[in-house]
Write a structure and sequence with these properties.
Helix content: over 70%
Structural class: mainly alpha
Number of strands: 0
Strand content: under 5%
Distance between the termini: 23 Å
Shape: globular
Largest sheet: none
Radius of gyration: 14 Å
């Protein structure tokens, strides 16, 4: 999945003031944002779409997604530098879901 991977990669490079990601970080983001399988990023994104469809308040959706991202990064043994950026990753997922929901994409129940 080129879109979330590139967004996560650029965000991490900016936040950590690096020229490029370490091999471990890059491999983790490739696995985390893979679109050919039901990756963790994709699951959390679909949960966010479902919450928007059910008219949950935006601050509550953001809180739930932040919690899910933090828990997923910890369970998958993400590199420590990535685990510290869980709020930014959650923000990217929430903003992507808001954009998709605003365009009227269908959400499977």
């Amino acid at each position: 999945m080129a879109y979330p991977f590139s967004v996560y990669k650029e965000m991490t490079i900016k936040k950590l003031n690096k020229e490029r990601l370490d091999e471990e970080e890059e491999n983790y983001f490739l696995k985390f944002s893979d679109s050919s399988i039901m990756s963790t990023s994709k699951k959390i994104y679909y949960f966010a779409l479902l919450y928007f469809k059910r008219w949950y308040p935006r601050f509550l959706i953001h809180f739930i997604i932040t919690y899910k991202v933090k828990k997923a990064l910890k369970n998958e043994n993400a590199p420590e530098t990535i685990q510290n950026l869980y709020r930014e990753i959650a923000k990217i997922i929430c903003l992507s879901a808001m954009g998709a929901y605003g365009k009227g994409r269908k959400v499977k129940k």
